User: Which sequence fits this backbone?
């Protein structure tokens, strides 16, 4: 995966021959794997990898890391040739696949070369702010500002990883470019007519036991509107986390656990689930998303996102249950009250007039 060793091996040996008595070590086969060891300032470091090349690549990076940590300079000629694609490979393996956003990151991984073209094969040491600015401008003509911002955040995290964890970069070029202006927060409610249209296209009626994949998408849509839970939280919801009056979410988007109260209708929806499996919705995130997007496209409803269910649910909770904002924040998991109030609570004019006069 990481193919930079051939060009730097000789330089590393020469460099370290001048400053240490050690040489760049060789990997030794141990059963079905390979093991490599090195000494630095009297301490031993080792790693086991599937191939000898991976072991040697690990050693080359480890030496650079140790030298940087010890305050020693790394000669320019010893810097590895490490492409943007190789960095994504390493980041996905070490960080991305363990992230809560792993499904989204995997989509970015699959479309990476299409988005960046020749830049994916460029050495990260040679990628300039000008390169990234040109990419940002081109990408901004293809997708909306929020998408560009989200993608920049991911790729910047990779360069920070290369800088602070792999000690390959001195600066993060992504931090040297201007970001698109963040658009105004969405103000989107979901009407009953839109709910009815989506349920019809998903071939589902309220009260029906879900059996087909599209039924579970419809069920999740209704459950989201009733609970204000995120799509990912609903898809990962387990039977063992459901109690008599609430759902316990052990790990959420912001890293905190929370309890979501269940209304009478939410309990009725849960009672409809026909199977006894631990996972309530028996679909992957990708399958669920594709089915939703296909049916939404067929509906002709403009500018509807599944996440708009959270706006609708929160607005309903205020209108119907008259929940104070501090209680509402505990239910929705918002740590910043201003985000809850200014982004997700979307009362219409009639609702404001009604509350004002009540």
Assistant:
């Amino acid at each position: 995966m990481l193919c930079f060793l051939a060009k730097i091996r000789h330089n590393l040996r020469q460099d370290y021959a001048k400053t240490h008595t050690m040489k760049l070590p060789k990997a030794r086969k141990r059963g079905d794997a390979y093991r490599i060891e090195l000494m630095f300032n009297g301490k031993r470091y080792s790693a086991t990898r599937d191939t000898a090349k991976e072991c040697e690549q690990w050693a080359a990076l480890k030496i650079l890391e140790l030298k940087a940590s010890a305050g020693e300079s790394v000669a320019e000629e010893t810097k590895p040739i490490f492409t943007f694609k190789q960095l994504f490979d390493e980041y996905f393996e070490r960080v991305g696949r363990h992230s809560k956003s792993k499904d989204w990151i995997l989509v970015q991984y699959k479309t990476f070369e299409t988005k960046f073209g020749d830049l994916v094969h460029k050495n990260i040491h040679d990628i300039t702010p000008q390169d990234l600015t040109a990419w940002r401008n081109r990408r901004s003509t293809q997708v909306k500002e929020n998408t560009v911002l989200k993608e920049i955040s991911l790729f910047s995290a990779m360069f920070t990883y290369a800088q602070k964890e792999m000690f390959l970069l001195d600066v993060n070029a992504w931090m040297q470019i201007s970001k698109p202006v963040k658009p105004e927060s969405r103000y989107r409610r979901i009407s009953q007519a839109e709910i009815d249209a989506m349920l019809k296209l998903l071939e589902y009626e309220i009260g029906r036991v879900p059996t087909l994949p599209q039924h579970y998408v419809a069920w999740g849509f209704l459950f989201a509107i009733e609970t204000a839970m995120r799509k990912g939280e609903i898809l990962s919801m387990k039977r063992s986390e459901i109690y008599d009056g609430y759902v316990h979410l052990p790990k959420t988007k912001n890293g905190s656990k929370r309890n979501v109260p269940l209304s009478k209708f939410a309990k009725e929806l849960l009672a409809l689930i026909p199977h006894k499996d631990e996972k309530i919705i028996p679909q992957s995130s990708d399958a669920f998303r594709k089915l939703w997007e296909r049916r939404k496209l067929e509906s002709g409803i403009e500018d509807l996102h599944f996440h708009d269910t959270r706006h609708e649910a929160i607005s309903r909770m205020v209108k119907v249950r008259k929940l104070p904002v501090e209680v509402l924040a505990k239910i929705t998991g918002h740590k910043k009250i201003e985000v809850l109030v200014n982004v997700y609570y979307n009362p219409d004019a009639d609702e404001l007039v009604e509350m004002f006069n009540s």
Observations:
- Residues 1-22 have pLDDT under 50 and may be disordered.
- The beta strands are 28-30, 33-40, 43-49, 246-249, 258-261.
